[in-house]
């Protein structure tokens, strides 16, 4: 063995230099950096970050993040748009509509100046084509149209003829919709980005992904048209044929791919993008540049809940479910794991335009223990271990263990959380082999009925296996009413739901958006469907060192 | 002719240069693949994006391909058994930190480029990555495990080599001892060749018969001197060349009487070589061989020349006779006991730095050369 090390002096120099260089990089400046000025090519172009996979296919989505909505609603225009202040439907591709007295037939008149990006007229057939295509997709998104007559049967394959589905083109500008059940809020449903029309050529273009090579071949009827597409994003310009083009102040929109939300935040600070929504980052990290960035918050129409299988064991007992609902500590749990982006849910339906949220639940550990003892399980003795079935993707979610730990601490009830592949979990759900589920319900319409509609599903599709005829009646009745009468019926339904506690709402989500200060016209929309055609960029003075971030 | 030393041939696949070459070729191929894949992005083509190049998509663990040779080299040059081992540990610790920092930096650079952030944002990305729990310290663990494994293999191999060397040394020691004893015995035997004694005694008898008593007395006195000197030299490993030449002159005095006027002995000794240290009676076997196989075998042979010269750090002793050439048979040439013992003595005393050469000296004669390091009592 060599007993004298052969370590040359130059090797030490090289190692020291490498270490020094890395130290410089890691300890470099993290604040006060310069941000990029807008290039002439991007003048009056709104640059939006997105982190999920986006394809210009209105019938392909995984998560309805706002960016997805912004993207689709920039290219396509649905029949109606919802007023963000009132939640009421406003004309878009349709200029008027009429709901029959029995609430089962909706007739819409399309605007005669509706055009595709190549100048073709937008016709009722285009909507029929689009909706038929949506119904050929899997049930996760096809269920958006299950309010149509025979839609579910067609999607499930029980009906083969698409003409049997309750949507027809009476003429070029008249669309008739036949509903499976009377629903007074059905018009608001039509604002869903999934329910946009489809040009006759679009299916072929999407199948070939021809929009990469020839973006002009993708014909859309929205305020913007696609002019460029690559793996890093999409560029759109104002569409000359859009009926409302005179009111659009943006020259175009650029959707820029970001790996994740915290990188999107840095891209905003760097001047690469102007809008990040949602921005899933805590606000206590300083931005590295002095670019003025604003933070906007809005309550999301979504609720996270613990769903009980009311057909299993002690969960059949209302007192047990009430005890589990009372033995949670939402505030502390949110403080630990969701500070700034979650708020406690005290009812099923969050506040929304035209309706305030109710407070129908509370937390009381002593009352929970009393109820549990009354049900025959004092201190949790004799209570079987509950099984909570989650997907493997949920493993990083800190909330399920937090909720079950609370049950153990307060009630002595143990819960086994199983993380399983999606297909295995689906089989478990189909077989009803679970006690508790944890998930999030996202509304597609700013309407309380939409958020409670899951409790009207057939038992085989219901997480809770709970079907209350009284609640069903209330919801059905509300679907035939409007205004205050409708709201009152929906409130009764919600109170009944919370009294029965087949599911415990735990959190509502607050969504943060980061905006460049020169972006004007931003408004809150609980569904995250801000229409980019309403935004514009104001000219701002050159940044100075004294300017501080407004976060 | 005997040449000193030998060359150990290493299988090509075990040579480090072979593996270095393979690594360089593979690295060149890898770089070419990555460059070719990212070429549209380098050129700024509209549809090309860094996000979907192999540079961005391939696992970052591929960096180990470039780091492993460095780790091997570092481990090889840093010992763990002498008093510098704390410094070695510290250096490896620093290297582990540098390697980890490299991985994190590379991950940060990929994010930077893929998300169109300016270069000065790299510290921000790296620190935000740490804040998000994105720093992985696994490379440090892998590096230390790799170094530990390399040291373990190295220690094991050296232990095995030490075992083998110990065994070999024990065998070589035994062999050398035997040869030394034999050489000593043979040196004793060859200090005065028995035939020389017999011939000398015959010469004495002849001189007495011819009533050349004076010469007979000189021969007896010279033989006695030689025997005395042989006994004195038996215990000495080395002597000066001058002392060795005194012995030879006595020897030649006797031989000249035997060969009468036929033998002519010449000395060509550089004065500075006289104080050089040489093995005791090293030339005696060569002179006797020259007499036996050269002068005695040819009636026309009469010259025997002893030379000594310094060539830099070497001393070259030469015995030349103008007798018949060497036999063509190498076995006969090299197996003579005088040659063998001289070679053995030279190897024992000088290792590979001394050698004995026998060669013909055209047009006539044979030359025996002893080459050894030039040493004196003061060096």
List keywords for this structure.
heterodimer; A: 551 residues; alpha+beta; nine-stranded mixed β-sheet; four-stranded antiparallel β-sheet; 16 helices; 19 strands; 28% helix; disordered C terminus; B: 379 residues; five-stranded mixed β-sheet; two-stranded antiparallel sheet; 12 helices; 11% strand
Can you tell me about this structure?
The complex is a heterodimer of chains A (551) and B (379). In chain A, strands 1, 8, 9, 10, 11, 12, 13, 16 and 17 form a nine-stranded mixed β-sheet that branches. In chain A, strands 4-5-7-6 form a four-stranded antiparallel β-sheet, with helices on one face. Mean pLDDT of chain A is 89; it is low at 540-551. Chain A has 16 helices and 19 strands. With 551 residues, chain A is α+β, with helices and mostly antiparallel strands. With 379 residues, chain B is of the alpha+beta class. The interface between A and B is large, with 39 and 41 residues.
Question: How would you summarize this macromolecular structure in one to three sentences?
Answer:
The complex is a heterodimer of chains A (551) and B (379). Chain A has 551 residues and is of the alpha+beta class. In chain A, 28% of the residues lie in helices and 20% in strands.
Q: Biggest β-sheet of chain A: count, sense, barrel?
A: 9 strands, mixed
pLDDT < 50 stretches of chain B: 1-7
Hey, roughly how much beta strand do the residues of chain A contain? 15-25%
Unreliable parts of chain A? 540-551
Radius of gyration of chain A, in Å, reads 27 Å
Please tally the β strands of chain A and state the result.
Answer: 19
Say how many strands of chain B there are: 7
For the largest beta sheet of chain B, what order do the strands appear in spatially? 2-4-5-7-6
**Proportion of helical residues of chain B:** 55-70%
* Helical proportion of chain A, percent range: 25-40%
User: Terminal Cα separation of chain B, in Å?
Assistant: 29 Å
So what's the overall shape of chain A?
Answer: globular
The fraction of residues assigned to DSSP E strands of chain B is 5-15%
Rg of chain B from C-alpha positions? 37 Å
Number of helices of chain B: 12
Q: Report the major sheet of chain B.
A: 5 strands, mixed
Shape of chain B: rod-shaped
User: Taking all residues together, what is the mean pLDDT of chain A?
Assistant: 89
- In N-to-C order, the SSE pattern of chain B is HHHHHHHHEHEEHEEHHEE
Structural class of chain A: alpha+beta
Most extensive chain contact?
Answer: A-B, 39 and 41 residues
């Amino acid at each position: 063995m060599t007993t004298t090390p052969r370590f040359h002096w130059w090797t030490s120099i090289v190692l020291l230099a490498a270490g020094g260089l890395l130290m410089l990089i890691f300890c470099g400046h993290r604040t006060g950096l310069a941000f990029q000025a807008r290039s002439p090519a991007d003048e009056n172009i709104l640059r939006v970050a997105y982190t999920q996979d986006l394809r210009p296919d209105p019938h392909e989505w995984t998560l309805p993040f706002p960016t997805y909505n912004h993207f689709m609603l920039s290219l396509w225009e649905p029949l109606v748009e919802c007023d963000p202040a009132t939640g009421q439907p406003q004309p878009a591709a349709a200029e008027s509509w009429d709901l029959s007295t029995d609430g089962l037939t909706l007739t819409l008149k399309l605007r005669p100046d509706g055009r595709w990006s190549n100048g073709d007229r937008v016709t009722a057939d285009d909507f029929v084509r689009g909706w038929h295509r949506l119904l050929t997709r899997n049930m996760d998104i096809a269920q958006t149209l299950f309010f149509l007559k025979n839609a579910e049967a067609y999607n499930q394959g029980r009906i083969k003829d698409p003409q049997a589905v309750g949507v027809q083109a009476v003429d070029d500008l008249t669309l008739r919709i036949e509903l499976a059940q009377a629903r007074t809020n059905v018009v608001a449903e039509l604002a869903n980005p999934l329910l946009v029309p489809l040009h006759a050529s679009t299916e072929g273009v999407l199948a070939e992904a021809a929009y990469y090579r020839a973006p002009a071949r993708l014909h859309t009827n929205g305020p913007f048209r696609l002019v460029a597409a690559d793996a890093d994003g999409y560029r759109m310009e104002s569409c000359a044929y859009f009926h409302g083009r005179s009111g659009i102040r943006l020259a175009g929109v650029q959707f820029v791919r970001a790996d994740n939300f915290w990188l999107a935040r840095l891209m905003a600070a760097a001047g690469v993008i102007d809008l990040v929504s949602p921005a899933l980052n805590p606000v206590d990290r300083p931005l590295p540049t002095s670019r003025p960035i604003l933070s906007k918050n809005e309550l999301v129409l979504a609720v996270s809940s613990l769903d009980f299988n009311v057909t299993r064991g002690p969960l059949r007992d209302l007192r047990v479910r009430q005890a589990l609902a009372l033995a949670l500590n939402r505030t502390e749990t949110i403080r630990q794991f969701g500070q700034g982006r979650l708020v406690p849910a005290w009812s099923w339906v969050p506040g929304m335009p035209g309706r305030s949220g109710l407070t129908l639940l509370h937390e009381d550990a002593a009352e929970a223990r009393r109820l549990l003892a009354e049900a025959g399980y004092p201190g949790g003795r004799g209570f079987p271990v509950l099984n909570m079935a989650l997907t493997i993707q949920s493993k990083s979610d800190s909330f399920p263990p937090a909720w079950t730990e609370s049950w153990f601490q307060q009630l002595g009830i143990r819960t086994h959380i199983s993380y399983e592949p999606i297909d295995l979990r689906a089989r478990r759900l189909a077989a009803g082999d679970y006690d508790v589920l944890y998930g999030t319900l996202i509304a597609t319409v700013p309407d309380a009925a939409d958020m409670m509609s899951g409790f009207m599903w057939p038992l085989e599709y219901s997480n809770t296996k709970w079907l209350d005829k009284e609640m069903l009646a209330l919801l059905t009745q509300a679907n035939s009413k409007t205004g205050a009468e409708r709201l009152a019926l929906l409130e009764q339904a919600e109170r009944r739901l919370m009294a029965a506690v087949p599911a415990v709402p735990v959190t509502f989500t607050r969504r943060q958006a980061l905006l460049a200060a020169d972006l004007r016209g931003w408004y809150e929309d609980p569904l995250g469907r801000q229409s980019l055609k309403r935004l514009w960029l104001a000219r701002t003075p050159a940044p100075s060192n004294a300017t501080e971030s407004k976060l | 002719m005997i040449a000193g030393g030998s060359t150990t041939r290493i299988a090509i696949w075990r040579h480090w240069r072979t593996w270095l070459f393979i690594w360089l070729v593979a690295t060149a191929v890898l770089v070419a693949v990555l460059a070719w894949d990212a070429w549209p992005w380098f050129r700024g083509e509209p549809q090309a994006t860094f996000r979907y190049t192999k540079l961005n998509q391939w696992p970052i663990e591929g960096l180990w391909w470039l780091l492993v040779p460095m780790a091997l080299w570092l481990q090889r040059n840093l010992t763990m058994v002498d008093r510098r081992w704390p410094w070695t540990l510290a250096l490896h610790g620093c290297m582990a930190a540098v390697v980890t920092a490299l991985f994190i930096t590379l991950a940060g650079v990929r994010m930077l480029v893929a998300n169109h952030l300016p270069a000065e944002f790299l510290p921000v990305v790296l620190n935000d990555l740490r804040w998000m729990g994105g720093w992985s310290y696994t490379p440090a663990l892998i590096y230390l495990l790799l170094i530990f494994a390399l040291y373990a293999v190295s220690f094991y191999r050296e232990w095995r080599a030490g075992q083998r060397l110990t065994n070999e040394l024990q065998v070589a020691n035994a062999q050398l001892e035997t040869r030394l004893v034999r050489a000593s015995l043979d040196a004793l035997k060859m200090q005065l060749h028995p035939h020389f004694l017999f011939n000398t005694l015959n010469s004495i008898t002849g001189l007495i018969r011819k009533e050349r008593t004076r010469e007979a007395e000189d021969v007896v006195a010279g033989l006695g001197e030689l025997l005395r000197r042989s006994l004195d030299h038996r215990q000495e490993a080395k002597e000066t060349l001058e002392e060795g030449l005194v012995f030879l002159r006595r020897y030649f005095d006797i031989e000249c009487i035997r060969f009468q006027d036929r033998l002519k002995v010449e000395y060509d000794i550089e004065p500075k070589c006289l104080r050089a240290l040489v093995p005791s009676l090293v030339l005696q076997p060569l002179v006797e061989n020259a007499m036996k196989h050269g002068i005695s075998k040819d009636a026309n042979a009469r010259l025997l020349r002893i030379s000594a010269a310094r060539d830099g750090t070497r001393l070259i002793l030469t015995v030349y006779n103008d007798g018949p050439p060497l036999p063509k048979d190498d076995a006969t040439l090299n197996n003579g006991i005088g040659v063998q013992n001289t070679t053995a003595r030279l190897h024992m005393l000088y290792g590979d730095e001394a050698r004995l050469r026998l060669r013909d000296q055209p047009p006539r004669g044979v030359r025996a050369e002893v080459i050894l390091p030039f040493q004196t009592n003061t060096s």
